[in-house]
Description:
With about 100 residues, the protein is mostly helical. It has helices at about 15-30, 30-45, 50-55, 60-65, 75-85. The chain has a domain at about 30-90: Orthogonal Bundle (434 Repressor (Amino-terminal Domain)), CATH 1.10.260.
Amino acid sequence: xxxxxxxxxSYLLDDPKEVDSFLEDAWKTGDSAIIMRAxxxxxxxxxxxxxxxxxxxxxxxxxxxxxxxxxxxPTLSNFVGILKALDxxxxxxxx
Length: 95
């Protein structure tokens, strides 16, 4: 049996290029739960709690809780609001 230990790599989130790669990798999965977990990790690293995000976005704290849950599926406006609150810019590129 393979025995893996948990490693804290949050220090990588201090580097904007690493954050870009981290978010891009999450986005490429196409899995909204993974994407929101990555965004949640960035929020934690920036020490923004869900109440602060709720205050900055005008979204209720319970809605923020749901968005960051395993079954969360944010509306586009909630998603954009959360990105703005965390100073994350979304870029689009034609394939």
